[in-house]
Design goal:
This protein is an alpha/beta fold and about 130 residues long. Helix content is about 40%, strand content about 20%. It has a domain of about 40 residues. The chain is built from 6 helices and 6 strands; from the N terminus they run βαβαβαβαβαβα. The longest helix is centred in the middle third of the chain and has 14 residues.
Length: about 130
């Protein structure tokens, strides 16, 4: 299974710790280099970090090459944009986005979108991502 993660944040680290040993391949895409993240994860054999300054333009390609996508940047605006672009391109792919604004999170949750929030991280082990 190939899981693509868009964006590097504290939540990205947290979820990789939860699912990292349960999946064959994790590709982490970021528009900028995050040396701390790379240093921490570069030795893990199933994790590849891809710096792509044109990430927004390559969302369709990434979604076509992935089994599941997690959108985990620190920007609710980017996460929402990427989520809608991906589900409009490939609605059958499991896509989960991080939303940090509580009101926005509640709105997406009420529309049955797959969304996570930093407020609820400890309520899930995130193994459903690799099992579904």
């Amino acid at each position: 299974m190939k899981i693509s993660i868009l964006g590097i944040s504290n939540v990205t680290d947290y979820i990789i710790e939860k699912i990292g040993n349960q999946t064959e391949e994790i590709l982490v895409y970021s528009e900028i280099t995050d040396f701390d993240f790379e240093l921490k994860n570069s030795s893990k054999k199933n994790i590849t970090i891809v710096v792509d300054p044109n990430l927004k333009s390559n969302l369709e390609k990434i979604s076509n090459e992935s089994n599941k996508i997690l959108i985990l940047s620190n920007s609710d605006t980017f996460n929402s944009f990427a989520y809608h672009k991906i589900i409009n391109t490939n609605e059958s792919i499991m896509t989960i986005m991080l939303i940090q604004n509580l009101d926005l999170y509640e709105m997406y949750k009420s529309k049955n979108c797959r969304v996570i929030s930093p407020f609820e991280l400890e309520k899930s082990d995130f193994l459903y991502i690799v099992k579904e």
